[in-house]
Design brief:
Number of helices: 7
Strand order of the largest sheet: 7-10-13-8-14-15
Largest sheet: 6 strands, antiparallel
Shape: elongated
Order of helices and strands: EEEHHHEEEHHHEEEHEEEEEE
Structural class: alpha+beta
Helix content: 10-25%
Distance between the termini: 70 Å
Number of domains: 2
Number of strands: 15
């Protein structure tokens, strides 16, 4: 084996094949130590193989076949592989990522799953410890929705809408459905911004004409008031840094959230606490 270490990367040539590992890769220091310890070439190849490193980190649910990563025989696209590498680099546990995949695979629409890949890649929103993700939502000062002024979006509330009422056609920019999105989208839409927790199984559509700024979902829970940009990759907290408000170049006035329900998170959907819109 021949190898060379530069300021930014490590390259090893084993059996006439070149393997390069950048300094930011979570196995970088491990590989250097393995070379110093004189460990076998086969072990070093395994450590330098990014795809295999992902599979080893994630456990039995994830495997590599033909240079591609699969979760229970369904291919995991590049965005989620990058997210897992981010988890590895930061020394975070794999469990939130695996829970995220488990939730995602419960989404009944393969098209919705692929649309969510694109949204997460574009916006880099945090994944929570229970396998959901956090997004932003613009509301009125009194926490009601901007469209009807009736749906309560106060922290501690859960809002749902029948999935069958929401189009999963990404060519439709504005349509009936619950809307959450990026920081840029939410802070430019409404006088107040809140943080929403969304289960991947509840994602319905990511409109193409909005540059992945928003999505339609059938359920979300409001976790906190917006206090600044959220941490990326993984978060068990929605705390931010400082409040800011931005402008949006899109017209979101045609979004329709009528017909949704709002009730205390973890509470009963029936009874006095329920708000039903018609």
């Amino acid at each position: 084996m021949n190898w060379i270490k530069t300021e930014d990367s490590l390259t090893a040539v084993i059996d006439n094949k070149s393997y390069t590992l950048r300094k930011e890769h979570p196995n970088y220091r491990t590989v250097i130590q393995a070379i110093k310890d004189g460990r076998g070439e086969e072990e070093i190849i395994k450590l330098m193989d990014v795809m295999q490193s992902v599979a080893d980190f994630a456990g039995d649910s994830v495997e590599v076949k033909g240079g591609r990563v699969f979760y229970r025989n369904e291919e995991v696209q590049g965005t989620l592989v990058d997210r897992l590498l981010g988890f590895m680099e930061e020394g975070l546990p794999a469990a939130p990522y695996i829970r995220f995949l488990e939730n995602l695979m419960q989404n009944p629409s393969s098209r919705s799953r692929s649309q969510l890949y694109r949204f997460l890649e574009h916006q880099g929103l945090p994944i929570t410890d229970d396998g959901c993700f956090l997004a932003y939502k613009g509301v009125n000062d009194d926490y009601t929705d901007v469209h009807t002024g009736k749906i309560i979006n106060r922290p501690g509330r859960t809002v749902t809408m029948e999935r069958s009422r929401i189009s999963d056609d990404p060519s439709l920019g504005c349509h009936t459905g619950l809307h959450v999105g990026s920081e840029e989208y939410a802070t430019g839409f409404g006088s107040r911004t809140v943080i929403c927790k969304v289960n991947p199984k509840d994602v319905v559509s990511v409109p193409l004409d909005c540059e992945c700024q928003k999505m339609r979902v059938c359920a979300y829970s409001v976790t906190a008031d917006y206090a600044g940009t959220m941490r990326k990759h993984y978060s068990d907290s929605s705390d931010g840094r400082s409040y800011s408000n931005g402008d949006s170049e899109y017209d979101w006035s045609n979004e329709d959230e009528s017909g949704a329900e709002s009730w205390p998170t973890g509470g009963c959907r029936d009874g006095a606490s329920r708000v039903h819109q018609v």
